[in-house]
Amino acid sequence: HTGMFTYDPGFVATASCRSAITYIDGDKGILRYRGYPIEQLAKEASFIEVAYLLIYGELPTAVELTKFESTIRHHTMIKETLKNFFDGFQYDAHPMGIMVGVVGSLSAFYHDSLDINNPRHREISAHRLIAKMPTIAAASYKHNVGEPIVYPRNDLDYCENFLHMMFSNPCEEYTPDPVAVKAINTLFILHADHEQNASTSTVRLSGSSQANPFACIAAGIASLWGPSHGGANEAVLDMLNEIGDVSQIDKYIAKAKDKDDPFRLMGFGHRVYKNFDPRATLIREVCHEVLENMKDNDNPLFELALELEKVALEDEYFVERKLYPNVDFYSGIIYQALGIPTSMFTVMFAVARTVGWVAHWLEMMNDPEFRIGRPRQLYTGAPMRDYVPVAKR
Ligand code: SDX
C-alpha cells in the first residue's frame, strides 16, 4: 500500500470482479470453462456448443443447441450498406484495423436493440456479435485480396461457413475440408475465453460506463491486436521467418535474454501460467494432425518451432522465469497450413474470443455489485505552481 491506494501496475494481484465463467490454475496448468476441462471440450465439443456454455452457464440440451444454432444462423448477414465501409479502407489495410472500425460501427445499425438495461436487447446484441464476426472477418480478408464479399451460407455450420466466406469466390465454391474444419473448431474453442486477460478486461471496463456492446467489443479487438496479447500469433510467424533456420536459434535465444535488446521470444511466457499453457499442448497436437493430413510432414517452420521450444525449455533463463509456450506459439503454423494469411491470424483469435467477451459483458451487466470501473493513481507530477502569462515565460 502506498498512501490510500494499493499500487499494482499491470494488475498482477488485483481481482477486478467476481466471475463464474472460466477457471485457471496457472501453477498446475489447469483451464476450465464453466467447470469443464478444456481438454474435454477441445476434443469433443463444437464451438457453438462451447459458445452456449460460456454464455448461458450450462451445456445445451439437443433442443437448446438446435435453437441456438438456428438463432446464430439467422443473424449471419451484415447490412448491405455496411459493405460500403470496406470500400473506404486502403486495399492493404490491416484486417484488425478494419475490424476495429467495422465492429464499432454496428452500433450505428442496430438502434432497435441498444437499450442495455433490457435483458432481451442484451441477448440479441450478443447473438448478433457472435453471428456477424465471421462475416466481417472474412469480408476484411476479401477486401485485402480484392475479391467480392462472399455471403454466408446458413446450411453450413459456424466453422464451415467461415471457411466458405474466406475461400469461395463467385467463380468457384470452396468445399470445406473436414481436417480444416475440425482444426478451426478446436482452435476457436481454445481461444474462446481466458478470464480477465487484457482484451476482456478492456471490454468490461468499456462496458462499465454503460457503453453499448458493439462499441465495447470494438475496444476489445483493439486491445487484442497488440503483440503482447493476441497479436503474438502473427508475431510468432514473423519471428520464425526471421530466425529462418535451426542454426540461428542460439543467436535468437541470446537476443531474447538480453535486457538491452527489445527482442522477446514471441508465443512464450504468460502472466498466469507458470507451468505449461494447456492450450499450447493441445494446439501442438492439432498442428501435428493438420500437417500430416496436408502431407506437409516436414514443414520447416514447424520443425523450427519444435526445436526453438526444446532449446528454450532447457535454457536456465526460461526455466528460472517459468516461461513456456503459450496459446499463440503453434496456432499460426496451423493457420498458415490451412491457407490463412498471416495478417488474419489475430482476426481468427478475435472471432473466437468474441464469445468470451460477450459472456463477460453479459455477466457484468447482470452483476448486482456492478459499478463503473475507475482505477486510482499515484500522482507523480509537478506540485502546485502559478500560471505565468506566455509573454513572461
Ligand atoms: C495471450 O492474459 C491472458 O490470458 C492472455 C492470453 C489469452 O488467452 O487471452 O493467454 C493470450 O495474450 C498470450 C500471450 C501472448 N504474448 C506473447 O507471446 C508475447 C511474448 N510474451 C511476453 O511479452 C510476456 O511473457 C507476456 C506479455 C505474455 C506476459 O508478461 P508479464 O506477465 O508481464 O511477464 P513478465 O514481463 O513479468 O516476465 C517475467 C520475466 C521478465 O524478466 P525479468 O525482468 O524478471 O528478468 O520473464 C521475462 C521478462 O522480461 N520474459 C521474457 C518473455 N516473457 C517474459 N523474456 C523473453 N521472452 C519472452 N517471451
TrEMBL record:
Family to which this protein belongs: Belongs to the citrate synthase family.
Name of the gene encoding the protein in the UniProt record: gltA
GO cellular component, one term: cytoplasm
NCBIfam families: cit_synth_I, PRK05614.1
Known catalytic reactions: oxaloacetate + acetyl-CoA + H2O = citrate + CoA + H(+)
SUPFAM superfamilies in the cross-refs: Citrate synthase
GO MF term set: citrate synthase activity
InterPro entries cross-referenced by the UniProt entry: Citrate_synth-like_lrg_a-sub (IPR016142), Citrate_synth-like_sm_a-sub (IPR016143), Citrate_synthase (IPR002020), Citrate_synthase_AS (IPR019810), Citrate_synthase_bac-typ (IPR024176), Citrate_synthase_sf (IPR036969), Citrate_synthase_typ-I (IPR010953)
Gene3D superfamilies, per database record: 2.20.28.60, Citrate Synthase, domain 1 (1.10.580.10), Cytochrome P450-Terp, domain 2 (1.10.230.10)
Pfam families from the UniProt entry: Citrate_synt
GO terms for biological process, alphabetical: tricarboxylic acid cycle
Keywords: Acyltransferase, Transferase, Tricarboxylic acid cycle
Name of the featured protein: Citrate synthase
Location of the active site: 270, 328
Family annotation (CDD domains): EcCS_like
Biological or metabolic pathway of the protein: Carbohydrate metabolism; tricarboxylic acid cycle; isocitrate from oxaloacetate: step 1/2
